[in-house]
Design goal:
4 copies of one chain form a homotetramer. Chain A is of the alpha/beta class. Chain A has 14 helices and 11 strands. The longest helix of chain A is centred in the last third of the chain and has 21 residues. Chains in contact: A-B, A-C, A-D, B-C, B-D, C-D.
Chain lengths: 345, 345, 345, 345
């Protein structure tokens, strides 16, 4: 019953095997290995971005921050949701890599920015006035940090607002695959309209690899230099490209995301039938925010379940306590059912 | 005949196996896995640094830059050799991570700074005068970027100069193991006197992992924050600790370095007998800088040998051209001998 | 009728005369002139900070940013009001000088943070967790950016919250003098409890000079280096110390602030009697935010009045439009009365 | 006998008077005052740069650093003389403002880079290779930091090398006027070929003002934002434009530089006749580096002469000690002659 995070489960055996195979003999370092060329081709096809510049980075924080630094001047501001990973969970990495750009927080009901709120946030900046920071990129996360997923229309509406103001748009796709699986669209549908995409794989069955994708290859060289300067260019880069190649091969990426989402959906269905449970918001992919009584938190932990409790375990038994539950590709129906049984008590 | 770099060879099978084993089931992310505690204990013992704060990072550039940023204020300067990796090969990573500190280059015959030159460089700064940058850490690389190795006495003399001026000392130990193997000393001998050590493993048979070691744990929390902020904290950190644990286990680190150095020594011995060869400097570990005729460069490349030629392949046959040859743990006596035969013509 | 800003009026003649006198012959550069020693002594006495490290800087933005950079690590966040000058009007200077620290915005009714809201904001950060930025200084502005003034009790309550969490406290005192004049307290009362004070003079009758005051002289040398590195150390520094000396002499600073506040109070009293006027918040020093009909905006501008209208001049005559009115030391009762007459129509 | 620096003498009375006049009444802040428009027009004419973007900044360090930050990416390197002010005397300001660019030092006999050495330095960088920093602007100082002046041909040769490599060229003209006076050329001759010029006035009779001049106005807005963000945008900007207007009016700038150079030439002529004096290099404007016996240093200081002695006053009387002598616009023939008499003993 490990529902703490999708970054704590195992990598998929096919990914591990690919890494083993990549260890055969010598390979050109720094991304010049053959596998990287194949990865580049596959991702361009998958995303429907035929000219994209594509690079691999080992962590999601680095991918976001390096991409944003390439897109954003130090005297600009990045528009993002008030609960965005780049705002809350990267210890200021975007500020560091951009040399001090700001983040302007956009109201986001259910963790999703609306076109209207985005427009308000953009209008609130004094663009063109020297005393304030200037408008920079819009960064959208989906699956959001609360487990919701933008519909393609919602997503498009945000992209259109950015376009209207001439601002580039970045997708934090740490859970790109889970969002595609949730919407039942294609990867190219999801990618539509973005200037830059952090295409995540670490949380979805890899060891540690993400793709940085720029629609316009004019960004390529600057990104390469920033990646190197940030200490993120791997010498034995073949171990990154091997993971990503296996991840893309035979749609393993989608299969794993579907598996994670299915386990999560099973949990959600069960949770809706437990009257002491309140879902904090919609749960459309592989993550659930919910409250349930403190006693149930204790019962679950005693039984070895792992998940985040956002509150103290000291206090009245029946007081609702906030929890986060995340399913990765390896989550099983059995574990989900067992979790539900123990929670219900 | 792959002598291009020690970052292009395979990882040791034991390292790969450890990574596979680490993939079993769930593990706490971000370095909280059990293996990290074991790695920390082993490295403290090995280096004779019982209180050391120890962290893992995936690249050497990041390890150096993050450590230096923790040790150096933006208005200080780092003293290093004029051919130091941090000066020449990191695309300004130290300047980036320190928020704009300087590097002051120290004369380094055979790529080794002397105590006298270090003292001159330190004295040349206007410490205490507000118009100039202030004195910061001294950074020493061994094995040096030209394949030489400081004797323990030479190393100690540099540390003593730094101490005299109250400056902290950093060791860029990307090839720490090869230096230990070269000197026949212990790892603790090598570590003696340093405040901070980048303990490399990537170039010596791992996939991508280095340890950042601070003698004084007072640096620990700031380093953790800088690592996270730099995008260098791995969620699936177990894959870093697994590599390092295997690397340390049964002195695999030393065995691999000895193997690389032995292949290199075999090459050097053979090269000394070829009259068209000139060694550019002493070659005391696993790297050789040398010149030999352009025709021999061509012959070797035609035969599939891989190494760096620092010069054009167009030009007179008998003109000497600079080359760099590096042996990794998997270099064989057979390949070395074959290389020599082809070079000799 | 110039009410656009307190940075657009003339310097006081005594300040100009002091600058002229300072031009006599040679003077040691960079703050070593005698006048600086006198300024330091006077300010220590005035503020009741006998050990304070005190430096002069030419602009308020630089003073704030340099002080905050000395107090705040790059991986920390600064707590300030949502309308703070450091947030809205410095084009990201705090982020630049701190190498990418964040600003966490605190709810501030009437532009004044409450102890409760400050506590909430501090509690909202994940201090001690590596994924988020860490708690840094609290920055308080008084006179606030909306013209309100913290009572000494309100100010003390904020300082106490900061103390409780072990956070240093910065005062953006660009209008320090107007706040003292408003409260009728002493400068030392106002300074009580702060670790660092930006003591403004530019807006209150000087040409361009602010004092950076650190209660603890341990910050002195780092501040000096950051000032130099920021290009803010004046070679002909005597022209800064001359201004500040004249400003402090015979309480000219207080006299000018009282004059500005008096003109503002006269305006406020008159505005309260005009039924088409709505004051946006309390106006306790030398600045007023208010709305009045568009037609009156036009009438005033036609008559040569200068002030900021926050809205278009196209639209219905009787629609309320937001305005900002600021009085400097040279504002007169006559101009205030004339402004009121024209506004009333 | 004040020869310590040209930043320690008085401002010219005409400059002070202009500042006084500028204090009359209200003026639009932040450079919108009428005088700034006039200054912009005058400088464009003087420098023969009809489209130039021109801004005022209060210090030379800030002017250089802000201009270079606008011209140079963080992952590039600036080519400059090994004794350049930006290297030695700005406490790392260029590194700070550029967010961590490097400075590559060019050999500079007599403090003047040669075209050949510049070419060597540019060639030494691994441009196009991701591991090293990339080529950025060339920065030339004249009058150099040792008192020499590039001939127009020497200057042009450097500009041509930069052009050949496609690199922009910056002139640190802190002593622009003294260089023009030395060469007897026009300001436009001096400005020829530069993309960016720091046009100094502080050292030559102003209180504190420099012009940042960009040949291509495409840099304007970014520079404005960086100036604001650096805390270098003056609210009471009229006091900067007043100084600069007086400085340009009636060629006061040239007159003052000629006066400073003449006093210096008189000193040099006298020094050549004193056999215990050795000039360290040519002295072509208003600054002299020389050695003379320690006893003479003591005699001069006892007589109240002010200048920099680069060495201890303890030691043998007749040992040569290095000194720096600088003349500003107010230096007199009488003081020069008196200095020579005392030195000669």
């Amino acid at each position: 019953m490990f529902f703490a995070s999708d970054n704590a489960g195992p990598a998929h055996p096919k990914v591990i095997e690919a890494v083993m195979r990549a260890n055969d003999g010598y390979a050109m370092p720094y991304g010049a290995e053959d596998a990287m060329a194949r990865v580049r081709g596959k991702l361009r096809d998958l995303l429907g971005m035929p000219n994209a510049a594509i690079y691999l980075v080992a962590t999601g924080t680095a991918t976001n921050a390096l991409m944003l630094a390439t897109m954003c001047k130090p005297f600009q501001t990045i528009f993002c949701s008030e609960v965005a990973h780049i705002e809350e969970d990267e210890c200021g990495a975007p500020e560091f890599f951009t040399s001090g750009a700001k983040l302007t927080l956009v109201d986001a009901p259910q963790a999703k920015m609306t076109a209207e709120h985005l427009r308000e946030a953009i209008d609130s900046t004094a663009d063109g006035v020297v005393h304030g920071v200037q408008r920079g990129p819009v960064s959208i996360t989906t699956v959001t940090e609360r487990g919701t997923v933008y519909t393609l229309d919602e997503q498009k509406a945000l992209v259109n607002v950015a376009r209207e103001y001439g601002l580039p748009v970045h997708l934090d796709g740490a859970r790109f695959a889970n969002a595609v699986a949730s919407l039942g669209c294609t990867a190219a549908d999801m990618a539509q309209g973005f200037d830059a995409i952090s295409f995540g794989a670490t949380k979805n069955g890899c060891m540690g690899v993400e793709a940085a994708v720029f629609a316009d290859p004019a960004h390529a060289w600057e990104f390469e230099l920033r990646r190197k300067r940030g200490g993120h260019l791997f010498s034995k880069h073949r171990f990154l490209s091997a993971q990503m190649e296996a991840y893309l091969d035979g749609d393993l990426w989608l299969e794993m995301a579907q598996s994670a989402n299915a386990a999560c959906a099973r949990l959600v269905a069960g949770l809706r039938n437990i009257k002491t449970v309140t879902l904090a918001n919609d749960s459309e992919a592989n993550m659930i925010y919910l409250t349930f009584p403190r006693a149930a938190h204790r019962r679950l932990k005693d039984a070895g379940a792992q998940f985040y409790s956002m509150g103290t375990m000291d206090g009245p038994d029946d007081e609702p306590v906030l929890a986060r539950i995340v399913c990765d590709w390896s989550a099983t129906a059995e574990n989900a059912d067992r979790f539900l049984r123990i929670l219900e008590g």
